[in-house]
Amino acid sequence: MNFSEYVQYDGLGLAALVKNKEIHASELLKIALERNEKVNPKLNAIIIPMYEQAKQRAQQERHGAFAGVPFLVKDLFQEYQGVPTSYGSNSLKKFNYTPDFNAEIVNRWENAGIITFGRTNTPEFGIKGITEPEAWGACRNPWNLKHNSGGSSGGSASAVAAGIVPIAGAGDGGGSIRIPASYCGLFGLKPSRGRTPWGPQYSEAMHGAAMQHVLSKSVRDSAAMLDAVHGPEQSSLFRIQSPEQKYIDIIQQAPKKLRIAFNTQSPIGTKVSKDAIQAVEHTAKLLESLGHIVVEDQPQINGLELAKDFITTWFSQFSYMQAQIKLMSDTTDDDFELDSVALAAFGAKTSATEYIHTLNNWGSYSTQMNLFFEQYDLYLTPSTASVAPKNGEIVTPAWQKPILKALLKVGKAHYLAQGKLVDKMVQDNLSWVPFTQLANVTGLPAMSVPLYWNKNGLPLGSQFIAPFGREDQLLQLAAQLEQAQPWMPQYQNIKI
To answer: From the candidates 74, 93, 217, 308, which is the catalytic residue?
Structure first.
């Protein structure tokens, strides 16, 4: 097999070849490593190699739906025993943090038979919608190397789109699966709160807003991997009912006639590009051609207030994480990026009363979505407000940096997050990605489906949000859309 043949298969397709003894797992790994050697210097997707471990495992008998398939894990919350892990940060990179355990999600992926050969690039602690960490450098988009792959699962998205692997580990706390899926033309599903595990380190992440799954080229790979990993463990705080059928079987059935609401306006009042609007309009027409009812409507939620409640929780949680890492690694603020230090400073000033008020608001947003889904089966929006930004396009302005440093020095950085400046900070942080946080805050399953490429050949996804626990409905529809407008042939157009 050569690369031009390898890239035509998804993960299940490669696993079938291994199972039928048409190819050995070690040969697949060899092709993946050769592709990596050719393109990763341009992409900067894989930052921590695990080549020798992978070669050893490729010689061993593997079992599971993805037996023998090359795979990558994200360098954030996906610990692999004995492998250096940085969370995209110089603080852990310099400390040489090397966990003595596997994350439970990694164990489940391993039990599915994959062969992991590296850890992928991510922004520092996953706190940005782009992947440009100072510790490792920017991760580039295979569709156009001048553009970013998105974040926080940017390295995984870049590697899958470039054909290094057909599927890779990802995580989503504010859109971090769906954003890079949109920018890199992939399928990305964020599961419902509690669907996938967080142990043994954690019982949950950010009150269940953050979930782990994969980025893939095909819908069936995502469905089969969800079959392999879903369900609670001993440490799980949230427990969700298992589906009555396997997801891989569910997607063989056509969805019922769905009533789908769509909206293209930014919930925080920021600009939405013509591409993003056209992407959703294209998807709406495709849905109608498949017999679904599409209505322009949106839930009765103040998007800017939701965004502020999300950011308050997010910054506060990060402040706690940074403090814990400082204790563990004996690092200082100088070992973290300036933006990270500033966000932690904002979060540290959130009072317990403010924090509880924010969480109560999260509940009200869930109520509104439950009411909304009494009228509709799904909610459709752009996944992102535009195609991928260029590398270096989203940065803290140079004039702000000395001000931030001065305020941090005297412990007053949180002053920047007061009054009307809060609204501006939210809009500045989320203007590129204003649509994804709704599903995280409410714990609802959501997906980005690659159905649109602009005139410059850059992709932009369509996001669907479903009622709680209805990954089956999302995956069914995604499979129908994939059949109606196959997107895997598009990957043949990537020339790196």
So the answer is: 74
Phi, psi of 140 (to 5 degrees): -95, 155
> How high is the pLDDT of residue 405?
80
Identity at 184, one-letter amino acid code? C
What predicted TM-score, i.e. pTM, was given to this entire model? 0.97
Q: Considering all CA atoms of the chain, what is the largest pairwise distance in Å, rounded to the nearest integer?
A: 66
Residue 221, pLDDT score: 99
Question: What's the number of CA atoms in the CB half-sphere (13 Å) around residue 303?
Answer: 20
pLDDT of 419 reads: 56
Residue 69 belongs to a domain = yes
- Angstrom distances, CA of residue 25 to CA of 1, 32, 105: 12, 11, 22
4 is catalytic: no
Number of H helices, E strands in the chain: 18, 13
How far is the C-alpha of 277 from the C-alpha of 260, rounded, in Å? 16
What is residue 418's predicted lDDT score, i.e. its pLDDT? 61
Domain annotation covers residue 298? no
The SS3 call for residue 302 is coil
Residue 129 within a domain: yes
Number of structural domains (the chain) is: 1
Separation CA 195–CA 458 (nearest Å): 32
149 classed as catalytic:
no
Contact 28, 70 (CB under 8 A): yes
- List for the chain the helix, strand, coil content (%; round to 5): 45, 10, 45
- 149, 152, 158, 236: the active-site residue: 152
- The HSE-up count of residue 170 (CA atoms within 13 Å, CB side) is 38
What is the CATH number for 79?
3.90.1300.10
Q: Report the pLDDT value the prediction gives residue 346, as an integer from 0 to 100.
A: 86
Q: Which domain holds residue 185?
A: 1-253+482-491
User: What pLDDT was estimated at residue 204?
Assistant: 95
CA dihedral 105, 111, 115, 118 (to 10 degrees): 20
Of the candidates 86, 149, 156, 176, the residue annotated as catalytic is: 176
Q: How many CB atoms lie within 10 A of CB 250?
A: 19
User: How many angstroms separate the CA atoms of 89 and 340, rounded?
Assistant: 10
C-alpha separations of 329 from 103, 324, 338 in Å: 20, 9, 18
Residues 352-365 have a mean pLDDT of 97
Catalytic residue check, 152: yes
